[in-house]
Amino acid sequence: MSSKINMEQWEAKLSAVNIPKEEMNKLIMNFLITEGYVEAAKMFEKESGTAASMDLSTIQERMEIRRAVQSGQMDVAIDKVNDMNPEILETQEELFFHMQQQRLIELIRKGKTEEALQFAEEYLAPQGEEHPRFLEELERTVTLLAFHDAKSSPLGDLMDIAQRQKTASELNAAILHSQCLDKESRLPTLLKILFWSQAQLDDKCAYPHITDLVTGQLGLPSDPKSA
Question: Which Pfam families match (predicted)?
Answer without folding.
Answer: CTLH (PF10607), LisH (PF08513)
